[in-house]
Amino acid sequence: MQLPFKPMLASLASDLPDGHDWIFEIKYDGYRCIALWSESGVQLFSRNGHSFNHSFPEVVNAFMVKTEQMKPFLPLVLDGELCILESPYKASFEALQKRGRLKEGQRIKKAAVDRPSTYLVFDVLSERGVQITEVPLKERKKKLKEIFKTLATAENKAGKPLACIDFHSNGSEYWELAQKQHSEGLIAKRCKSKYIPGVRTDQWVKIKNPKSGVFFITAYDKNNGYFHVGALRDGKTVSAGLFSHGLTPEERSVLIEIIKKNKTGEDRNFIIVTPSICVELQYLELYKDQLRHPRFVAFRLDVRWEDCTWEKAVSSKN
């Protein structure tokens, strides 16, 4: 069976959009998923058309047990995010990645019980077999609310395999909530936007809620231009990952020259430097104690490298 619709994608923005013609949703860190639900069963598709059915049986089962009562709406095509929730406002990408790597059936079944996933639905693309992608978003949201009222699982609480993502019209208030709850960010969508499959559009924008920390540079990779960073944990240097984005060409050139002047070793791949150069980085979250999507913010000449402990570096949530 083929993917019925390629997902519509949001553009990245640095600020919340202005105006009254936007709605706002919590952004969850998960797997984008298109669900095709008919009387004969459900197919969960990744954005590239691969099946999620084997990996997330608890979600498949949740659809199946509701099929009889949902017959008046079927067949349906839904769009959403497969997640493992830490709270109603935050998902764990690390837990999801571990789950996604499982292949053996019994291990998957055990994981589905121990830490179940949730399919968070935010759009409906087809109802009763009729495509409604040309219908304005606000109308599609009304249809989705009606569907989940019938399902009686309208709240996106951890542990429910099927849930509907809530939305708000006050972006500023919702952004404060996202920051307080350490969410990944917000998705802003124009109320009148149509669903354009496979297109990245400015009718939907994502605003990320990054964390920040101060780390010291340990090496420069001459092959790919990335800078490796670390922090002190129990008095020893531990790796925190690597970064490249966010530097201006001038900042990059200066940093490389400083590293060359203070190097303690060099081979064909790396220039090694003793801890001394401190930088502030923004990042999405930690995955296996490595920074996800780090971005340079500033040189921190006011910070001693000895003060760049792991605890301090990762304690600044926002």
From TrEMBL:
UniProt cross-references to SUPFAM superfamilies, sorted A to Z: DNA ligase/mRNA capping enzyme, catalytic domain (SSF56091), Nucleic acid-binding proteins (SSF50249)
Entry keyword Repeat: no
Residue ranges constituting the ATP-dependent DNA ligase family profile domain according to the UniProt record: 110-247
Pfam families attached to this UniProt entry: DNA_ligase_A_M
Catalytic activity: ATP + (deoxyribonucleotide)n-3'-hydroxyl + 5'-phospho-(deoxyribonucleotide)m = (deoxyribonucleotide)n+m + AMP + diphosphate
Gene Ontology terms, MF aspect: ligase activity
InterPro entries for this protein: ATP-dep_DNA_ligase, DNA_ligase_ATP-dep_cent, DNA_ligase_ATP-dep_CS, LigD_ligase_dom, NA-bd_OB-fold
Identification of the protein by name: Non-homologous end-joining DNA ligase
Species per Swiss-Prot/TrEMBL record: Fictibacillus terranigra
